Amino acid sequence: MKSLLFAFKGLVYALKTQLNFRAHCFFTVVAVVLGSYTQLNFSEWLWISLAIALVIILELINTAIEVLVDLISPEQNPKAGAIKDLAAAAVLVASLFALMVGLIIFVPKLF
Q1: List 44, 59, 66, 75, catalytic entry
Q2: How confident is the model over 70-79, as a mean pLDDT?
């Protein structure tokens, strides 16, 4: 039960401190509302869910890495910067994947 509380504490931390996490949550709501409106089938919901989960998970991992790097290396350090950039790149790739999934599924339904 304690570990579940710690996990929710992490979600609250991300929501309070990370603008990008809040943006991803907003787009999650948009995708779910749009999916309900367009009556996605089972496989379409699976793809949308996978894309959402991938982005949210990687954004949380990115946030954890950023906090850890700031703790370990509070001063400017090229390697610390590279670590943060790589973690951010993972979120970017996942976000582009999610965008492509969304376009492939929603564009034909809306136009």
Answers
A1: 59
A2: 95
Q: Which residue matches tokens 């999916």?
A: 35
Structure confidence at residue 1 (pLDDT): 87
Read off the tokens for 19: 């603008």
Q: What is the C-alpha to C-alpha distance for residues 34 and 41, in angstroms, rounded to an integer?
A: 13
Q: Is 59 an active-site residue?
A: yes
Q: What is the DSSP string of the chain?
A: -HHHHHHHHHHHHHHHH-HHHHHHHHHHHHHHHHHHHTT--HHHHHHHHHHHHHHHHHHHHHHHHHHHHHHH--S--HHHHHHHHHHHHHHHHHHHHHHHHHHHHHHHHH-
pLDDT the model gives residue 89: 98
